[in-house]
Amino acid sequence: MSRYYGYPDEAGIDDFLEELAQYLVKGYLHSFEIGFKRDGRRLFTLYYEVLSDGSLSDSRAGGVPAGIDIEGASPFNFLRPSEAFGRMAQSQQEAFRAKLPIKRVFGQAPVDGNGRWITEDRSYAAAGTGLRRRRFVPV
């Protein structure tokens, strides 16, 4: 995504990877989405959902389509914590978040725009935790 669309930049990639690693190692991540939106609607997105049953096999990275017109669009990312995170005391949640490189604000993920979800995309697994990726792409 960075190579084709300039988002995230290298520092942003490192920060996202660190943040996601911290959420994953503690079992606090439900899903992570990164992409572009226009007028509050998804234009293009990569959506990663955590599965803890270990049933996924690894796929190679990549698979980001080139050539999507992002003019007038803005980048976004949205992280949804797991239920385990939600069961923690607010003070514990705040202490965990304070150590992360990204300071998030609460908000809503965009709604679907003029496009479609590709659900059979990629999957990644390690140490009994899997990530399933799907994409939203314009039609």
Key terms:
38% strand; six-stranded mixed sheet; globular; single chain; 4 helices; 6 strands; 139 residues; alpha+beta
Mean pLDDT: 87
Give a short account of the largest sheet: 6 strands, mixed
* Helix and strand run: HHEEEHHEEE
End-to-end gap: 18 Å
**Count, helices:** 4
Structural class: alpha+beta
Q: What is the percentage of strand-forming residues? A: 35-45%
Outline: globular
- Rg: 15 Å
Could you describe the 3D structure shown?
- By secondary structure, the protein is an alpha+beta fold.
- 24% of the residues lie in helices and 38% in strands.
- It is built from 4 helices and 6 strands, in the order H-H-E-E-E-H-H-E-E-E.
- It has helices at residues 2-5, 10-26, 83-86, 90-98, and strands at 29-38, 41-51, 74-81, 111-112, 115-126, 129-138.
- Strands 1, 2, 3, 4, 5 and 6 form a 6-stranded mixed sheet that branches.
- Strand 1 (29-38) and strand 2 form a beta hairpin.
- The longest helix is centred in the N-terminal third of the chain and has 17 residues, at 10-26.
Set out the fold topology.
Layout: H1 2-5, H2 10-26, E1 29-38, E2 41-51, E3 74-81, H3 83-86, H4 90-98, E4 111-112, E5 115-126, E6 129-138
Parallel strand pairs: 2-4
Antiparallel strand pairs: 1-2, 1-3, 2-6, 5-6
